[in-house]
Structure formats: C-alpha cells, structure tokens
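Task: encode each sequence below as structure tokens.

Item 1
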Amino acid sequence: MKMLNNTSTMMTNLLLVVALISLIVGGVGIMNIMLVSVTERTREIGLRMAVGARSRDILKQFLIESIVLCLVGGFTGIILGHGAALLVESQLNWPIESSPGAVVAAVVVSAAVGVVFGFYPAWKASKLDPIEALRYE
C-alpha cells in the first residue's frame, strides 16, 4: 500500500510539473503576442498619449487586453476539455464528473497568467515617449 501511495504522489507531481511548464510556455506566447501588439500600435499609443491619456491608462488597456486574451483561451480549453470528457463518457462508458472548483481554478489561473505575462508589454507601452511614438514608422 505504501508503494501505491508513493507512485500516486509521483504521478501527481509529474502532472503538476507538466502543467507548470505548459503555463509558462503559454505565458511566454501571450507576452510575445502582446509585445508585437505594442510594436504595431506604437503610433496609436503615441496619439492617445498626445491627446491626454496617462501612462496608467495605457497600462490598464494592455493589461486588460492580455487578461481577455488569456480568458478566451481558458474558456476555450474548458469547453474543449468538457466536450472531450463527454465524448469519453459516451464512447467508453466511463463515469465522468465535472468539478466546478476546477473550472473556477482554471479561470483564475488563466487570468493570473494574463496579468503576470501581460505586465511587461503593458509597462513597455505605458513608458513610450509620445513624440517618439508618433514619429515611429
């Protein structure tokens, strides 16, 4: 019985490490997308700052975009995962039970990834010089 419990703990830890690596890879992807978005919209950012937008307004805008991007991905994953579970239940007659706590945790983690990995691009956008941004081609 001790060996079975140890194996279960090892598998749980392995799944946790795989999930963390997946979150980091996904977060880096989000960060890259947001950095490209900041670069492509440099003139827009400069224009907004020139007409009165504060740095924190720009920061909030890009953080919200990052969070929304992550939440859309999170909800898509939840829907696909639930659909796959229903497919397994119908085809293999395995009992499947959805956990509302796991769904809430997935949404919270998805939003947290958006905040953590979206902060640097948002900060970079908020620190642009309006004059230089308007000159940017």
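Item 2
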Amino acid sequence: MEPETRKKLLAEGTAIALGLAISLAPAPEGLGQSAMWVTGLLAWAIVNWMTNAVPDFVCIFVMCSAWTLLGIVPFNEAFASFSGTTVWLLIAAMGISVAVSKSGLLARVALKVMSIAPPTFRGQTLALMGSGLVIGPFIPSTIVKVSIVGAMATDIGEKLGYAHRSKGMAGLWSAMYLGYNQLSQAFLSASFFAYIIIGLLPAEVSAQFTWTYWLMASLPWLLICAAAGYALLQFHYRPEHAPKITREEIRAMADDLGPMNRDEKWTLAVLLTCVLFWVLERTLAVPAAITAIGGLCVLLALGVVKVPDFNQRISWNVICFMGGAINLAHAITVTGIDAWLGATFGGPMSALISEPVLFVLAVGLAALLARFIIVDMTTCYALFIVVLTPFCLEAGMSPWIAAMCAYCVVYPYFTKYQNVNFLAAFNSAGGDEKLDHRKLVPFCLTFHLLSILALAASVPYWEWLGLIP
C-alpha cells in the first residue's frame, strides 16, 4: 500500500471514529440527539478538511445529505443556498475572472501602471502594490491575479538587475502579493471569499454590507496596512545596488503587447459597468448577483467566455463547497446548538466581547494559528464565522467584525502548504529558481501581525459606525 494511501486511510478512520463517538454520545442538557449528529458530522468533516483525506466539497455533500436522511433538516433547506444569491454571484464572478485571465487585460493594465512609476526599487514596489489596489476590485479571483502578475514581478526584477533568490527579487514579489492578494479584503469585489462571507452572515447583516459600505468599514485597516506594509517592504528587502532598467524599457514591455484586442475591450467595459453597478447597488436597487450574472451573460454572448471555458475553468468544487457550507449555520440554529453555546459559554464570551480590542486581537491570533492546522482557507474563516456569529449577535456586535478578524489573516505562507494562492503566485514567478521562500517569510510574519494590530486600531471607528455597541 502506498504511504499516501495509508496516511489517508488512517486519517479517514480517525475522522469516522471521532464523528461517531460524538454523534452517539448522550446529548448534554439543553440539546437533542440531532444536535449531536450535526456536531459529529462537523467533527468528521473538520478532520477531513485538516488532512485532505476527502475533498472538502464531498464532505459538505455528505453532511447535507446526512441531515436530510436523519430528519434534521429537510432537503429543500439543506441545499437551499444553491438557489440563493451567493452561489450565483460566485458563478458569475468566476466566469468574469475567466475572461480577464484569457484576454490579457490584467497584464496590460499592470504594466501600464509600472511604466508610470520610477524605475527604482521604491518606485516599482509602490507600482506593484498600487496596481493591485487599483485593479483588485475589478477582478474577483485573487488566484488569477497573483498567477498573472507574479510572473511579471520577477521579470521586472531581472530587468532591474536583481539576482535570482535575492532580497530585491523577494521584495518585488512581496509587493505584488501585498497589493493583489493581502489587501484584497478591503473590497467586496476583489475576492470570491468576500462574497462567501456575505453568504455566511445573517441576512440582515449581509444586506447592510453593500460594496460601498464594505469598503467604508474596512478603510482604517486598509490605510494602515497599505502604508505600513509598504514601509515594511523597504525595511526587509531594500537591495544593496541601484537598478539597471529605464522607464522606457518597462514601457517597451507594455508596448510589446500591441493594441487592445476585441476581447480585452469588452472585458474592460463589462468590468467597469459591473463595479459601477456594485458601487451604486442601493441607489439603483439592482442586486449584486444580477449585475454579475448580466456581465457574464454579455461575455458569453460575445464569445469572450466560451462554453468550454464555462465548463472547465470555473472552480465548481469551490461553488459546491460553499453552497453547502452556507447552510451549516442553518443546521446549527435548527438543532439549537447556537442557543446552547450561548447559554454555556455566553458569560466568558460576553466578557471578551465587552472588551472589543481584546476580542479582535484574540480572534485574529486564533485564526492565524488555526491556519497551521486547517489547510483550506475557506474552511478556516467559515468555521470562525459560524461559531462566533451567535455570540456577536447576543452582544450587539456585528458578526462582520469577527468575520474580518478571521478573513484578514487567511493568506499566510509561513509554510508552502498553507496557501494555494501563494503556491500559484510563487510558481508562476519562477518558484525556487527565482525566489527564496525563507526570504519571503519575514514579511509574511510582520505583515500579519500588522494586520491584526490594524484591526484592533479600527475598533473606535467601528464603534462610531455602530458595528460595535
């Protein structure tokens, strides 16, 4: 038997044993046996998510089906989210990202921004970070963005004269990753993850967080992390020698792409229109999902996104996972688990939430540490949201606060296995040949600590907004 197969069988045996032990254990006072089955199934799924013994979306399908078979949640409720706005918003957003990836528009805009900046380490790190902030809200897939621009970062590094695996090369890559990935949490449309969070939050909370309000609530965190993150880049990676490239050479890289083609023009028009409608969602009374679906339909009708692209290049496993995960909160409510948690742990949690700065620091650090164990990024922040939402609501705090505390630390790359986005960006940039992972870790550490401190610094502002009582 292959070692990998043996490892997976051991993990699955552990998952099943733990799940059955919890499911068949006598329910504590205040809970029924159905709650134990929901908890046992969740424990089984968590072990699988930690070990990758069974794909995450398969675990979700098993959980939802088991709820129905056990009579806990009817089928039309267990799978209700597949007809909801979040799943369709995800499908449309992923389809639009396919158009961006295929057309070459992202590379063109990024090179244009870099050609304007001074051809120095300071200038190019600012351009890479800044272009990510400018382009990010138009493209909901972070993995698409970092895969394309990651290669450009090391290309620019080579033209600046930085050796492979050098500090300068690591600094340019880190600036790219900061702008296109680690600051994406500030914009609702910059990552699929934000749409997933909207689906996980209670309806009355998600209705409040339009594109504009999300950005407004995230603004202190964004400003602090962008300014201090840029300073950290200069501290960690400032190279020893001056660059060997001119602004004209960078412009030549952009000119080599030639004039904009038809697909780029249509993709740009659709992106601009979608973002405009998302910003004016409340004013125009057009739901974000309808805007995204409309944009995808235009791209499909024009042939920018073709049927094979729709079938093969959209992450259907992610959509399946989130379609079921969103209903986990419903199962927890139906079985009274949320009420029991509130009654059992309400005192200590209320004491922690009553000190918002301490609460934010605790959740941020806990979520960051959890990423060493929970390999899947979505699973990690989804669990924090599901567990913490009842306590936040009880205390009068918006669950969005807890969601952001987990979401803003979801992208660490202390080890390569932690982050699929990192792997995409790292490998597209040349992998170990051009980048030294050990040189990337210091910025990863200092930025994530900065991110948690920036969340804590946002507490007075969130109190002013009424998100914290």
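Check on item 2: The chain has a mean pLDDT of 86. The radius of gyration is 23 Å.
End of task.
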